[in-house]
Description:
Elements: H1 10-36, H2 43-64, H3 72-93
Amino acid sequence: xxxxPDPPWLLPALxxxxxxxxAFALFGWDKxxxxxxxxxxxxxxxxxxxxxxxxxxxxxAQRVFRHKTRKRTFACVTFxxxxxxxxxxxxxxx
Length: 94
C-alpha cells in the first residue's frame, strides 16, 4: 500500500503552502507587535521559516504589510531562499 499522494508533487506543494502561510502569519504578527510596542518575533525565527520553504509567504507579507522592507538582509534571505529551493528542485528533477 502506497501512502504517498497520487501526483508526486502534491506533498511538496502542500509543505511549501503550509510554510508560506506560517511565514505570512508570522510577518503579520510581527508587524502588528511592532506597531503596538509589544514583544516581537525573533528575526532568526522569521529567517528560519523563510529558509524552510516559506519564502513565498515571507515575500508576500513583506509587500502586503510593508514590513522588513528597509532591511536588506530580509530581502536577501528571501531571495536566497528562493534560489536555494529552485536549485534544489533543479538538481532533484534533473
